[in-house]
Design goal:
- The protein has about 425 residues and is an alpha/beta fold.
- It has two domains: about 210 residues, Enolpyruvate transferase domain (UDP-n-acetylglucosamine1-carboxyvinyl-transferase, Chain); about 200 residues, Enolpyruvate transferase domain (UDP-n-acetylglucosamine1-carboxyvinyl-transferase, Chain).
- About 30% of the residues lie in helices and about 25% in strands.
- It is built from twelve helices and 24 strands.
- The strands form six sheets. The protein has a four-stranded mixed β-sheet.
- Strand 20 and strand 21 form a beta hairpin.
- Helix 9 runs parallel beside helix 10, helix 9 runs parallel beside helix 11 and helix 10 runs parallel beside helix 11.
- It is globular.
Amino acid sequence: MKAIIKPSPLGGCIKAIPSKSRAHRLLICAALSDRQTRICCDRTSQDIEATVCCLGSLGADIVRDGEGYTVTPVTHDALHTRPILNCGESGSTYRFLTPLVCALGTGACFELKGRLPERPMDELWSVLEAHGAEISGKGSDIVGIEGRLSPGLYTIPGNISSQYISGLLFALPLLEGDSRIDIVGELASGDYVRMTLEALRAFSIHIEERDSCFIVPGGQKYVSPAELITEGDWSNAAFWLCAGALSPEGITVSGLDLNSSQGDRRICGILRRFGADVSAENGRVVVRSAPLQGIDIDADMIPDLVPAIAVTASRAEGVTRIENAGRLRIKESDRLFAVADTIYSLGGIARTEGDNMYIRGVKTLRGGEVDSHGDHRIAMLAAVAGSFGSGPVTISGAQAVSKSYPDFYEDLVSLGGCVTEEDEQ
């Protein structure tokens, strides 16, 4: 699908969509628990549905209505052996469920789409194999898992993906004996691990966090709290907040937890540093335009914010330097290249140098034709940037937004955007 975005001032109020990061975690915990759980989550996405599909293939019964999910957990008798788990392009689904399948001892065949087979897994495979797993098809689009994990010491690097640690944290409490996870080096995106720990605590799983390690008692049971609400998603809300920094009317995003463990809540502080007018209270964040100045940003803990930040940086006076962004190269696209390429293609000034990116602000983007690179966040970047340009923007592969935000273009229109969709030839 192509989306044609014509320049149109954005402004108004919108509710944040549910956090897919939170939804993944709550769904997995609910599928392992002792009784039925209701998860309030009024919107879904391809990634969330990938986790729903895989949990269903393992034996859980998950029913969706307009307001969320009712999860009937996997029972011992209903646990399926060697199921086919279709992960789509969801890295969270794949990395969370790989250790879990090994802990359950069911075996499984993981089907992977897009760039997911290329994303790093070697370190996670190694630690699982050292504890009883057998893995075939590594690096291909079909990966087989056999064997059952044994408890013990799990040593894994922390600088590649926090999803490795989260996957182990879901799995190890189910083993008969105690385990420990030792993190080598700095833990990247540690806020996501804290989100995992919060979800586990909600289901009565106890894990002790110490310096660079987690102590995981074995033989634990997931206990359902009956009902949970999926909080608003800061990662996707960031696109509207960054748009607000260019909007005289301003944009308000409601439904956000200002004390969330989501690392991308840092967008408020980043926009203030740019010079935007930002206020936040009672779950609502309001951002209005003000004179913007380029800043230095360390992206190590907030890689998913970079595409949204690029919208603001493209119009800020001077240069915005984004450092430690190398992990963006192993997302749905080489996102570091794709962000710079998109800004450049729309008439901005952007370049990459190693793991850093430099964006020099311009008075206006001229518009043009861009490719989403099959990446939801690149499509969103182009659409928001195009709304504030001087000419239309045509986005090829615009349907990529469905990975995390299927209603993105409808919400863009609700804020005053002008969107026309066409079939690609």
